[in-house]
């Protein structure tokens, strides 16, 4: 359900097997039948795909039509009389179609993983005689090893082409193709190589038979042995609903269901093949206490006692602000909430931060400042229904693949116009490239988004002017912004971005025609210098064109980690209280402390960059790290190593021994998201239930239990019986936070806040936001290296996922083939990357989508690469920027 | 022997006629186009073609003017004409001659058609094996463009009509109009389900007319001589004009013959074709390409027009008449045709894909004297389960030869199966089937 008002569609009445159905015009007969409980058997039809009518299984009799019709391709008509199960002719036709399909089917159900959930098996039981008339030899295909993750058994294929169509229509990947003719048609990779694609697993899931199955769980189970738990994927901020399928407390596979979850049954490689992390043999099993250079296993009581007593001692000796805490946005809302409550209420410091600080905060802060809500004012459904989409630095397929699918659906199916400002070039590749679908594409380097954003704004306002109501009610605001934009010379913008006035003009005119405009802002913007300012500018753009408050319009910053949004909302940020209120807001502070029965310190505490400094200066003595790995993610130039060395107490709550955990004094084992209950809040602000699928590995405990236990030791008990109790408390403190059912209702801009913003608040940093960032000197032999998320990984966490490592197990420095050729470098060559910070060695990969002058390195494999990175902190939001490096590339 | 006035083959039968633009113009070529641009509105052209009674020469025989009339007049954006030159029906070779020997005749027809339906772009989808034809068409197009008959600002009229030649890659199914469109779009050549029809959702989902080469070649003559003239030829009112019939098989003079529609098969086979090759009696014949069911000697007096052939239980189809003499095994003939259809089934829909393989294996077995009791009934049942349940007309086409040979020569099947029963102990040997 989109948030905008929809006109009621015309309804049509028809009869199906004697039952009367009233459905919207244009509905297919097969769907109308489903609605009145008549199940029409089918193989090739799938509601996600355009009908192909090739399997002929769904033939029905329709009065006044000359022959049997395929119900999957026939739209309903007024007064239509359809006979499905009640027609002998139909029954005979279905039987004959099955006879045909089974003619060449091997009937190897006993060794087929699909056995027990196979459409062909089910329909055969229902329609065919037990003895086939087919007494010839069956067709046999050569076995082909398709890929390390996906198994094909083409003898079982019914040639329904669902996989091929899914790969093309939904994923826009086109990795699969039917090869050969007639009965010899088999599904193969497009081209004579092993399958090389996004590995979304969609073909496995959509195959109605056992022709395409997952190699990750081959021969390990029968569907009826599996215990199911519907939960939420723990990788990116899209918050896809997945179903863990387990056997004897072991994860066998993950699946998703059409029609449920924000992903509507679609998944990406991480979601579908990345579930093995939880069962990795390197999981930490027991608490560990440092003894000199090594760790000794300990029992919980011992470890907690040591942590609790040390914290207490430090607090008494140096005050609460000698203790700081850092938590990951991968934790549940309940973990995050209890963490900040523990730090604020029990320890007594606001010195806390979370991974939202790495970039998502830029987006959330901008939203909060302009429109008074920290959530999107749009939902995924609005993306699908939008008529104009503007993507800025999203790299969406890699970072938020399912948001990417919504964009693809909007553009490919619904005819939305797509404008992209991305550090990508249109090029066909094995991973879908969103800019290939763009109507107007501005390809810029990863440090050049600002020029293009300002140029587009300038063009929009110069050609169309601002909206009338802005002109009337916010004259000064409008004039000031116009003045800022007028101050930017076209010649400079053209030079900077490489696109002309008329290029921007065309895009601007498309933008202005949009009634439902969604602007998506991604990691490339939010995690790079100027990210906050650019998000503000894009909000200005919607304000000036009068779209900000329109339903279906909004700016949507994309969260990288699954619960970044939740981390902000739960207040796991130094200057933010639960609910996103500012710590400086005395009323909110009082309200929350009343709920807690504890006082909340009023100093703003300081963000991650500040506590790095305070750790180095020795002011901070103890650091609690929950699922974060600052040593593994921040560059050396940030001083993280020295900062950690001076600590009296470093506690890590972790699944694995990370770089940071190796430096810890105490390491506490925790539960993975498959092992605990709680909720995640996805990037669109939808709170969804996480359910336990397997028992924890070893002695692992949920994070909140650890804080709760520590509070008891520290003599200020904060006890909870279970997650539900925490949830209840969160809902008391924040009435708006609760699982919302299948569809979220997006927030609305707060008119008061918008009014305040245009009334003068905007002036605070106007000049800096609209000043073109000084151009980086462009040395022709240097490349701009951008650390970026790969589609197959998420943070460092997924490096423990077997399936994902089979697709991508090493980091390569990806450059454009021409860029490589210019330097006489080929695929797989070793190169040295050097700048004044150091030199590192990397293997080169060629990708046509990477712009000239740039190189991309997957951040998951970046340990050495960090040595080259620059580091800067945003003055407004304290976000540390460290994803870019300028470096020379030398062939070894 | 009666002499008939030729229309389509008239030019090329002149000694020394090369099909060049100059010679075509000398023979009165492109006068029709000039006339249309000067005196006709698009609707007037469509009306003339409707009145002429011209029906599609590709196989289905759909009235051409009516097809053009389905193109939405006020459609914004492009419309297309596709000339179906993917002539692949076994026993049919008329389009090849029309293209290679007098290319401008069809080009002129195409330009006029584009004018009538409001298309600015036309494609000739030519069978991949017709390398020579494609070269000739390219050359002819160059000539026509240079002379202003094709291209921008057509003969100074301000109209733009471009024609492109696209070579197929060797699939029979691409002669099916929607598979042709898929292939032309660069996709795998497989038929689309209909509706929607190409008239509204054709090439690139735009309104599109798909017409056969011979259909196109007729258009200039209708314009030059008038619809009434055309409608008076042949066997009006349903089958007007001439047709270029292709004669092959056990006859003395195989080849293309242009005759008015409605002459009896006897005259065509015995007078024009010179009768049977070795003077054995005729055993059976296919009246309209491999998809058309067989007819028997008793049908020799059936008139060669759409209705009469349909009444006799077959179809005039693509106009390819294949004749078989006494002594031919009709089981073998059916198998041979079925092998073709099995090889060409695109595999899109289940009944055709699986049915063609099943049919060919069963026929092979019978022919190899390994047939079983009940095989004939099995063949009939399979055919019944294919026809009418497929995406395109291929399903009907492939069962035609099987069903008609069983109908007319059932005893030949029975004899082979009987022999197998004697020769083979039951259930001992499985047939060997190779793909």
Characterise the protein shown here:
The complex is a heterodimer of chains A (892) and B (435). Chain A is an alpha/beta fold. Chain A contains 31 helices and 34 strands. Chain A is globular, with a radius of gyration of 29 Å. Chain B is built from 16 helices and 10 strands. In chain B, helix 13 runs antiparallel to helix 14 and helix 15 packs antiparallel against helix 16. Chain B folds into 3 domains: 222 residues, NADH-ubiquinone oxidoreductase 51kDa subunit (Rossmann fold, 3-Layer(aba) Sandwich), CATH 3.40.50; 87 residues, Ubiquitin-like (UB roll) (Roll); 94 residues, de novo design (two linked rop proteins). With 435 residues, chain B is an alpha/beta fold. At the A-B interface, helix 2 of A face helix 13, helix 14 and helix 15 of B.
- Please mark out the parts of chain B with pLDDT under 50 across 5 or more consecutive residues, or reply none: none
CATH hierarchy, class of the largest domain in chain A = Alpha Beta
Overall average pLDDT of chain A: 93
What best-fitting shape of chain B do the alpha-carbon axes yield? globular
What characterizes the major β-sheet of chain A? 7 strands, mixed
Largest interface: A-B, 37 and 35 residues
Q: How are the strands ordered across the major sheet of chain A?
A: 14-13-24-23-22-15-16
Average pLDDT score of chain B: 94
Uncertain runs of chain A: 1-6
Q: How many strands in all of chain A? A: 34
């Amino acid at each position: 359900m989109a948030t905008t008002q929809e006109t009621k569609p015309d309804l049509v009445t028809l009869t199906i097997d004697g039952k009367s159905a009233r459905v919207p015009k244009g509905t297919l007969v097969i769907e109308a039948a489903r609605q009145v409980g008549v199940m029409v058997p089918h193989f090739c039809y799938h509601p996600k795909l355009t009908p192909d009518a090739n399997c002929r299984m769904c033939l029905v009799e329709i009065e006044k039509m000359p022959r049997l019709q395929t119900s999957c391709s026939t739209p309903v008509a007024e007064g239509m009389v359809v006979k499905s199960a009640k027609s002998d002719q139909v029954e005979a036709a279905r039987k004959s179609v099955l006879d045909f399909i089974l003619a060449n089917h091997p009937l190897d159900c006993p060794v087929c993983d699909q056995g027990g959930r196979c459409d062909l098996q089910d329909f055969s039981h229902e329609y065919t005689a037990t003895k086939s008339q087919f007494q010839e030899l069956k067709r046999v295909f050569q076995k082909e090893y398709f890929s390390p993750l996906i198994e094909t058994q083409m003898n079982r294929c019914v040639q329904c082409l669902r996989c091929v169509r899914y790969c093309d229509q939904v994923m826009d990947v086109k990795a699969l193709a039917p090869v050969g003719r007639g009965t010899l048609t088999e599904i193969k990779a497009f081209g004579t190589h092993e399958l090389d694609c996004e590995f979304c697993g969609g073909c496995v899931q959509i195959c109605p038979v056992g022709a395409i199955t997952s190699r990750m769980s081959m021969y390990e189970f029968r569907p009826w042995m599996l215990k199911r738990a519907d939960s939420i994927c723990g990788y990116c901020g899209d918050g896809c609903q997945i179903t863990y399928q387990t056997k004897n407390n072991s994860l066998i596979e993950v699946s998703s269901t059409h029609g449920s979850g924000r992903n509507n049954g679609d998944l990406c490689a991480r979601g579908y093949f990345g579930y093995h992390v939880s069962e990795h043999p390197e999981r930490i099993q027991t608490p560990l206490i440092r003894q000199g250079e090594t760790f000794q296993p300990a029992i919980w009581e011992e470890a907690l006692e040591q942590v609790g007593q040390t914290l207490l001692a430090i607090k008494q000796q140096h005050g609460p602000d000698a203790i700081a805490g850092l938590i990951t946005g991968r934790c549940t809302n309940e973990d995050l909430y209890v963490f900040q409550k523990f730090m604020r209420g029990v320890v007594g410091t606001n010195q806390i931060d979370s991974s939202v600080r790495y970039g998502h905060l830029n987006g959330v802060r901008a939203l909060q400042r302009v429109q008074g809500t920290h959530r999107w004012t749009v939902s995924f459904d609005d993306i699908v229904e939008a008529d104009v989409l503007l993507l800025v630095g999203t790299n969406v397929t890699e970072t938020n693949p399912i948001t990417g699918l919504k964009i693809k659906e909007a553009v490919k199916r619904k005819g939305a116009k797509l404008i992209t400002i991305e550090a990508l070039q249109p090029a066909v590749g094995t991973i879908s490239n969103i800019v290939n679908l763009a109507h107007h594409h501005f390809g810029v380097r990863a440090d050049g988004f600002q020029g293009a954003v300002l140029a587009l704004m300038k063009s929009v306002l110069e050609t169309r002017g601002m909206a009338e109501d802005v002109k009337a009610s916010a004259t000064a605001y409008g004039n000031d912004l116009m003045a800022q934009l007028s101050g930017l010379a076209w010649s400079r913008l053209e030079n900077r971005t490489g696109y002309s006035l008329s290029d921007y003009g065309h895009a601007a005119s498309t933008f202005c025609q949009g009634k439902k405009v969604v602007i998506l802002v991604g990691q490339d913007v939010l995690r790079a210098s100027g990210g906050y300012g650019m998000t503000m500018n894009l909000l200005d753009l919607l304000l000036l064109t009068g779209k900000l408050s329109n339903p279906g319009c909004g700016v949507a910053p994309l969260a990288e980690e699954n619960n970044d949004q939740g981390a902000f909302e739960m207040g796991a940020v130094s200057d933010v209280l639960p609910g996103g209120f500012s710590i400086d807001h005395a009323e909110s502070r009082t309200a929350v402390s009343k709920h807690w029965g504890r006082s909340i310190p009023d100093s703003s505490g300081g963000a991650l960059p500040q506590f790095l400094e305070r750790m180095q200066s020795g002011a901070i003595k103890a650091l609690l790290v929950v699922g974060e790995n600052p040593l593994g993610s921040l560059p050396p130039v940030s001083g993280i190593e020295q900062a950690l060395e001076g600590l009296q107490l470093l506690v890590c709550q972790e699944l694995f021994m990370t770089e940071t955990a190796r430096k810890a004094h105490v390491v506490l084992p925790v539960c993975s998201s498959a092992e605990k209950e709680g909720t995640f809040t996805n990037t669109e602000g939808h709170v969804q239930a996480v359910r336990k699928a397997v028992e924890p590995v070893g002695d692992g405990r949920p994070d909140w239990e650890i804080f709760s236990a520590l509070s008891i030791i520290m003599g200020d008990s904060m006890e909870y019986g279970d997650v539900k109790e925490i949830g209840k408390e969160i809902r008391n403190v924040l009435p708006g936070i609760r699982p919302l059912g299948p569809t979220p209702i997006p927030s609305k801009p707060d008119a008061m806040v918008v009014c305040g913003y245009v009334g003068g608040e905007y002036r605070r940093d106007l000049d800096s936001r609209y000043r073109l960032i000084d151009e980086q000197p462009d040395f022709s032999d240097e490349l701009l290296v951008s650390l970026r998320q790969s589609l197959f990984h998420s943070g460092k966490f997924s490096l423990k996922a077997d399936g994902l490592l089979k697709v991508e197990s090493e980091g390569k420095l990806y450059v454009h083939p021409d860029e490589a050729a210019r330097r006489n470098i080929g695929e797989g060559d070793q190169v040295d990357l050097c700048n004044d910070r150091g030199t590192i060695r990397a293997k080169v990969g060629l990708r046509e989508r990477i712009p000239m002058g740039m190189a991309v390195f997957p951040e998951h494999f970046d340990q050495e690469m960090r040595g080259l990175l620059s580091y800067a902190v945003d003055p407004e939001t304290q976000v540390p920027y460290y994803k870019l490096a300028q470096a020379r590339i030398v062939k070894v | 022997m009666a002499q008939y006035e030729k229309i389509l083959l008239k030019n090329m039968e002149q000694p020394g006629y090369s099909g060049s633009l100059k010679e075509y113009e000398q023979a009165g070529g492109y006068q029709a186009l000039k006339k249309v641009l000067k005196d006709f509105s698009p609707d007037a052209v469509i009306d003339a073609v409707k009145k002429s009674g011209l029906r599609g020469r590709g196989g289905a025989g759909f009235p051409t003017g009516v097809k053009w009339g389905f193109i939405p007049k006020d459609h914004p954006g492009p419309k297309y004409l596709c000339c179906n030159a993917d002539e692949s029906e076994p026993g049919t070779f008329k389009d090849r001659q029309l293209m290679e020997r007098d290319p401008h005749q069809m080009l002129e027809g195409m330009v006029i058609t584009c004018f009538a339906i409001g298309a600015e772009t036309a494609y000739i989808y030519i069978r991949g094996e017709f390398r020579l034809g494609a070269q000739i068409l390219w050359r002819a197009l160059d000539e026509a463009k240079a002379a202003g008959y094709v291209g921008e600002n057509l003969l100074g009229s301000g109209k733009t009509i471009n024609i492109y030649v696209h070579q197929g890659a060797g699939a029979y199914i691409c002669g099916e109009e929607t598979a042709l469109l898929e292939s032309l779009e660069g996709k795998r050549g497989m038929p689309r389900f209909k509706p929607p029809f190409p008239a509204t959702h054709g090439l690139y989902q735009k309104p599109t007319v798909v017409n056969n080469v011979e259909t196109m070649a007729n258009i200039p003559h209708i314009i030059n001589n008038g619809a009434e003239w055309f409608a008076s030829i042949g066997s009006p009112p349903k089958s007007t004009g001439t047709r270029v019939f292709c004669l092959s098989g056990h006859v003395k003079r195989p080849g293309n013959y242009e005759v008015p529609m409605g002459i009896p098969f006897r005259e065509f086979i015995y007078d024009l074709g010179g009768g049977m090759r070795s003077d054995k009696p005729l055993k059976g014949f296919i009246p309209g390409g491999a998809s058309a069911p067989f007819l028997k000697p008793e049908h020799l007096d059936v008139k060669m027009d759409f209705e009469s052939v349909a009444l006799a239980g077959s179809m005039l189809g693509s106009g390819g008449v294949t004749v078989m003499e006494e002594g031919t095994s009709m089981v073998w003939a059916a198998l041979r045709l079925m092998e073709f259809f099995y090889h060409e089934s695109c595999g899109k829909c289940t009944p055709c894909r699986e049915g063609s393989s099943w049919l060919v294996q069963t026929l092979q077995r019978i022919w190899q004297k390994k047939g079983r009791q009940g095989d004939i009934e099995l063949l009939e049942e399979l055919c019944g389960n294919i026809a009418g349940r497929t995406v395109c007309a291929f399903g009907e086409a492939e069962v035609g030869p099987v069903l008609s040979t069983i109908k007319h020569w059932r005893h030949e099947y029975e004899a082979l199966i009987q022999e197998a029963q004697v020769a083979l102990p039951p259930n001992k040997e499985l047939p060997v089937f190779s793909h």
